[in-house]
Each structure stands twice: as C-alpha cells, then as structure tokens.
C-alpha cells in the first residue's frame, strides 16, 4: 500500500535516472535508454497505485502531503520542501509519467542511430522529474523549482542537435522567452510573500479574504504572464514554432502533452486568486481567445508538418486558457481538454515523427502524398488523433471542446456571445488546417523526391502511437460519464453557483458539429479535389504570406523589444567604456605620465643633483630677499 512517504519516489526515480546516466557517461551507452525508460515506467506505476489508493479514500482525505525538510525559515516566514498529491496533481502525474513513458519507448527506436542516445534519455528523465516536481510542489516556491527545471530540460532537448546553428538558436530563443514569463512568476511569489507572509497554496488561499483586490489583481496578472511564457500564449508565443528543431519525441513530450500545459495548471491551481480578481480573470480569457485564433490561422499556412502541429498546440491551449478564465464553470473542462489533448496531440506528433522516419526526415507536407498505403498503421493512429482534435463524436476532443464552447456561450452577456463565437470560429479553422495536414500527408498522388522509399515504422514506434490513439478515442467519453472528472476535481474549486443556460447544450453540439463540417469541406475542396504542387507557391495573398511568417510575431518582437534592447545595451556599454572606464583609464594615464616626468629627474649623475641643489638654494635665497624687501 502506498503512503504519503512514497511521494518523493514519483520524482526520485526519473531524477535518479537522469543523474545516474549523466555521471556514468559512455559506460551506459548500451543500456542507458532502457534504464531511463524503466525509471519513467516505475514512476507511472507508482502514480497508478496512488490513484487507486486515492479513490478508496473519502473526498476530504484524498489530498496527502509529504514534508521532506524545512527549506527556508526566517522569523515567522517558513517554507517546507513538501509535496502535495491531490485530485488535480494526480491527473498530471499520470499524464506526465504515462505519456512520458510511451515517448521513452518510442525514442528507443527513433534515436537508435544517434551516438548520444544515452544523454538524450538522461535529459528526458530530467524533464519528467522536473515536471513532476512542478505539479507536486505544495507551494509556489516549490513549484518554481520544477518550473525552472522544466525550462532547463526544454533548453537541453530543443538544442540537442546543437551542431546545427539554427537548432542552437531555437533553443536559446525558447529559453529567453520563457525567462520573460518566469519573471512574472517571480514577481507573483514576491507579492504573496510581501502581502500575505506565505507562499504555500493553502496559505495564499486563506489570505485571499484579507488582501485587497488590487493586490490579487497584480498577482493574477503576473501569474498570467508566467503561464503565457510557458504555454506559448499571446504575446509570448513566438518560441513554440522554432522549438520544433528538437527531435520529434521532444515535440511530443514537451510541446504537446506536458510542459506547454504547465501554464494551464498554474492558473487552475491558483483558482482562489483569480476568483477574487475579476480583472485578471478577464485578461486570462482575452489572452486565451486571441491565442486560440492566432495559432489556428498560422496552422492553416504551414507546410512543415511539425510546425503545423505546433501552431495547433498553441491554439488548443488557447481553448484551455479560455476555459480556465471562465472560473469555477470552466476549470474542470480546461483540465479535461488538457488531458484529452495529451493523448491525441502526442500521438500525432509521434505520427509526424513516423512519417519523417519513412521519408528520410522530410518535413514538407507538399512532398508527401499517398502515404496511407505505405504507412497504414501511422495513417490509422494519426487519423484517430485527427478525428479527436477536430471534434468528431464520439472521439475525445468532441467532449472536451464541446464543453468549453458551451461554457463560453453561457458565460453571459456580450462576453458569452463574443467568446462563444470565437471558440466556434476556432473549431472551423481547426477542422480546416488538420484536414489539410491529413490530405497533404496521406491522400492524393505521391509527390516525394526520387530516392525516397516510404515505409512503416518499427513496432517500438507504432505501439506507443496505437496506445495514444486508444486514448484519443475513449478518454473524452470516460471523463464525461456521470461528469466523472468534474466531480473528481470539484472539491478543489469554489462552487459553480447557478448559471442561466443561455445556449442549450444540444444547440451548442449542433453548432460545433456544423463548424467541423464547414472546415473539413473547405479543406477538401482546396486540397483533396485539386492538384497540389510539391513546390511552395509564391504567388499567394498577403494574408497567406503573413500566416506563413507567423503573423509577423518575430518582426514585432524584434521591433518592440530586441532592437530597442540592443540599442539600450549598446548605449550602456558606450557609457561604461567612455565614462566609467574612461575615467579609470584617465587617472591611470595621468599617474603613469607624472611618474614618467618625475623619472627623468632621477638620472643618477652627481653633477646633475649638485646643479639642482644649487638651483634650489638660489631660488630659496631669492624668495627670502623678496619677502624681506
């Protein structure tokens, strides 16, 4: 039977795997990948045992805590290094360790020819351990340690093939933009410490009633900044597309199932802050709605299969952020979509890696076509994920996205109409760009180059894809039966209260399915029933060019932040060199010059010294004569 004292092993197993493999070096090359996979699998098994134990306890007794040691103690302020496993964190533990283990298994084959495979698996273990610490920490400070560990592991994995300058640049871009978001979390922790005297989740929750709304609003906004950075939300979303430079399993683990959902976790975990700060909560909804459409538009124009899926991830997390911003009515649905998304998006990223494996690492979908015959298992598993993400019933995405759209419409007033319309528009665009990916990749005539021989991936790659596809089919249904997930998470949130059902759920379902039909039909008309050129067309509209260039997000960031930052840095350097260093160099030069002048008087000749004595005596006598006159 598992107890609270075993929580540390959830993190300890993959952390030990990472440290052990890095210290062993080349000695572990032959078996390091198997050891790392075993450590991740062990964490998943332990998570399952904790889950079953939790279901056998009463609702009040389900959360358990393990205190490891006193981390900080200064007067009345005290922070323990402690872990909290409750109904919310167990969902993430199973997702992180379960999907993470499948990706480890997939990587055994995918990275089989890489001479640094052992180091890659060590980084995967490090990432899993850091992500588990992030969701198990019982305070914002403990969460912050995992938050930064995840950032480090992401940097190492995105730039794993850093011998290519573009890949190294991509990892640095992701690292820097995430540091901007991390400043938001840092300031939020400072606000909690300064105004509440605590940084634990329970302590902040208890202090909410005695802290003013402006303070909570400031803290909520800073938490939103942190979430935007980690979850690639507007305006800190520019790093996600470039992060596809890393090996495909990295994209599946970090940029589909786990790290990019950390921002959603942070907002939902901080529900007591946002419930008491309506302005911050409204900003959460606005950021999510903008990113939802922003990412979907970019996804329509990408020919790189991984970047198309990355834009899709950005958009789908926008749905989750919108739901999280709707308060008690939406928290559970944000987590539901997060969990279903973990299945179908991770499966599709692995499917993209399978396609690349069979196509000599080609990522341009315009050079695919007709692969369903050569790669039937990849086609089937990817296709199930496709049906889930666009929201076809009874696949997983239908249930979770449908609930978010319904909650948006029923949020009331003009906000409900606008937000509901935005989420429906997102459903149309999602159906369009994902159908485009399916058609360009698996349908039509072959368009690949000579010398390419598409083939199905080995079992170690398609087996994880098949298991994730099963989740893509069944997860939504399981979560919604008897409102299972809603009831499971409800003790952690404020009561919903009574809401008027402005838009009946049946009407929302019809609208959502209609949106899917419109998007699929438009994509089929454009790509299925017309010939597709293997060369990227250049005579396209301005809107298409903008979408291909990520709607100018890099241009805007360079103009508003990078160039002014460079100019400011250059100015500070110039002041330092000319004023500060100039003054120091000037004093040094003056001292050296004076010394050189005085040194000429010390010739060492007696006659010269006698002449100077005589001259001094004459000057002295002359002075006396002048004074006495």
TrEMBL record:
Source organism (scientific name): freshwater metagenome
Signal peptide (from-to): none
Species lineage: unclassified sequences, metagenomes, ecological metagenomes
Domain NADH-Ubiquinone oxidoreductase (complex I) chain 5 N-terminal: 71-121
Pfam family name, one: Proton_antipo_M
GO CC terms of this entry: membrane
Gene3D superfamilies listed in its UniProt record: 1.20.5.2700
Keywords linked to the UniProt accession: Membrane, Transmembrane, Transmembrane helix
InterPro entries: NADHpl_OxRdtase_5_subgr, ND/Mrp_TM, NU5C-like, Proton_antipo_N
NCBIfam families (alphabetical): NDH_I_L (TIGR01974), PRK06590.1 (NF005141)
Main location: membrane
GO-annotated molecular function: NADH dehydrogenase (ubiquinone) activity; NADH dehydrogenase activity
Protein name, per record: Unannotated protein
Residue span, NADH:quinone oxidoreductase/Mrp antiporter transmembrane domain: 139-423
Transmembrane segments: 6-24, 31-53, 87-108, 120-137, 183-199, 211-229, 250-268, 280-301, 377-396, 416-439, 460-482, 502-524, 609-628
One record GO biological process: ATP synthesis coupled electron transport
Compartments, as annotated in UniProt: Membrane
Bilayer topology: Multi-pass membrane protein
């Amino acid at each position: 039977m598992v107890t609270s004292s075993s929580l540390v092993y959830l993190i300890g197993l993959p952390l030990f795997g990472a440290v052990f493999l890095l210290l062993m070096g080349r000695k572990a090359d032959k078996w390091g990948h198997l050891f790392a996979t075993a450590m991740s699998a062990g964490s998943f098994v332990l998570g399952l045992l904790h889950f079953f134990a939790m279901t056998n306890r009463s609702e009040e007794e389900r959360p358990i805590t393990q205190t490891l040691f006193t981390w900080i103690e200064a007067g009345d302020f005290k922070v323990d290094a402690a872990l909290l496993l409750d109904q919310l964190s167990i969902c993430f533990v199973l997702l992180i360790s379960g999907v993470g283990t499948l990706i480890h298994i997939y990587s055994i084959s995918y990275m089989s020819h890489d001479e640094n495979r052992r180091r890659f698996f060590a980084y995967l273990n490090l990432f899993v351990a850091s992500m588990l610490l992030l969701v198990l920490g019982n305070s914002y400070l403990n969460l912050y340690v995992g938050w930064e560990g995840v950032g480090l592991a992401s940097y190492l994995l995105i730039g794993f093939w850093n011998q290519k300058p573009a890949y190294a640049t991509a990892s640095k871009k992701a690292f820097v933009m995430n540091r901007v978001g991390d400043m938001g979390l840092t300031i939020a922790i400072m606000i909690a410490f300064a105004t509440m005297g605590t940084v634990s989740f329970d302590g902040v929750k208890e202090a909410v009633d005695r802290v003013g709304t402006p303070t909570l609003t400031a803290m909520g906004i800073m938490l939103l900044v942190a979430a935007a950075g980690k979850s690639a939300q507007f305006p800190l979303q520019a790093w996600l597309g470039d992060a596809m430079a890393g090996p495909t399993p990295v994209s599946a683990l970090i940029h589909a199932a786990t790290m990019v959902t950390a921002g959603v976790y942070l907002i939902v975990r901080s529900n007591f802050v946002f419930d008491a700060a309506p302005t911050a909560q409204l900003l959460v909804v606005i950021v999510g709605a903008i990113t939802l459409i922003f990412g979907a538009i970019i996804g329509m124009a990408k020919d790189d299969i991984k970047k198309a899926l990355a834009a899709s991830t950005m958009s789908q997390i926008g749905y989750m952020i919108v739901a999280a911003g709707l308060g008690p009515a939406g928290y559970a649905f944000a987590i539901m979509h997060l969990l279903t998304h973990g299945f179908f998006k991770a499966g599709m990223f692995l499917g993209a890696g399978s396609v690349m494996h069979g196509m000599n690492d080609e990522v341009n979908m315009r050079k695919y076509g007709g692969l369903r015959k050569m790669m039937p298992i990849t086609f089937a598993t990817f296709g199930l994920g496709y049906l889930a993400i666009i929201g076809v019933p009874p696949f997983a995405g239908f249930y979770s996205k449908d609930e978010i759209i319904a909650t948006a419409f029923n949020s009331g007033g003009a906000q409900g109409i606008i937000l509901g319309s935005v989420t429906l528009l997102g459903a149309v665009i999602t159906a369009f760009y994902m159908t485009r990916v399916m058609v360009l990749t698996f349908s039509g005539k072959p368009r690949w180059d000579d010398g390419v021989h598409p083939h199905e991936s080995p079992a170690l790659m398609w087996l994880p894809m098949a298991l994730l596809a099963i989740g893509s089919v069944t997860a939504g249904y399981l979560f919604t039966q008897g409102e299972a997930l809603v009831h499971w998470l409800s003790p952690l949130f404020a009561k919903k209260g009574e809401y008027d059902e402005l838009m009946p759920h049946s009407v929302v379902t019809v609208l959502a399915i209609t949106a899917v039909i419109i998007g699929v039909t438009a994509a089929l008309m454009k790509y299925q029933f017309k010939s597709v050129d293997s060369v990227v067309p250049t005579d396209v509209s301005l809107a298409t060019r903008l979408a291909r260039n990520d709607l100018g997000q890099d241009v805007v960031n360079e103009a508003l932040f990078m160039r002014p930052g460079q100019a400011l840095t250059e100015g500070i350097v110039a002041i330092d060199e000319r004023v500060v260093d100039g003054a120091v160099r000037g004093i040094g030069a003056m001292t050296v010059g004076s010394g050189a002048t005085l040194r000429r008087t010390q010739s060492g000749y007696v006659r010269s010294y006698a002449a100077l004595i005589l001259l001094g005596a004459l000057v002295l006598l002359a002075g006396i004569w002048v004074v006495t006159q």
